[in-house]
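Late entry, written up from scratch paper. The run itself happened at the end of the previous shift, but nothing got recorded in the book at the time, so transcribing now.
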Amino acid sequence: MDPPTLAKLEPPAVSTHPPRILLLYGSLRERSYSRLLTEEAARILERFGAETRIFDPRGLPLPDAESPRPPEGAGTAGALSLV
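Output as recorded:
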């Protein structure tokens, strides 16, 4: 195994572009606190010189409202029933 050294950890060339950061949030609500926080983080990062993009999750497929139940006795021994 080749041990790491500082010389090996340095990038081969200095980057000429600002850091590029993709920000994600998961809530689709109109007044989503996670979306507002993500937008504020983007503003702060841009003030520090970063390029930011915010991924908009609208349009992604949503999980079914009712998840399928496992077959009877499929590894649920000792589990509590919530139904």
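The longest strand covers residues 20-24.
(Scratch paper discarded after transcription.)
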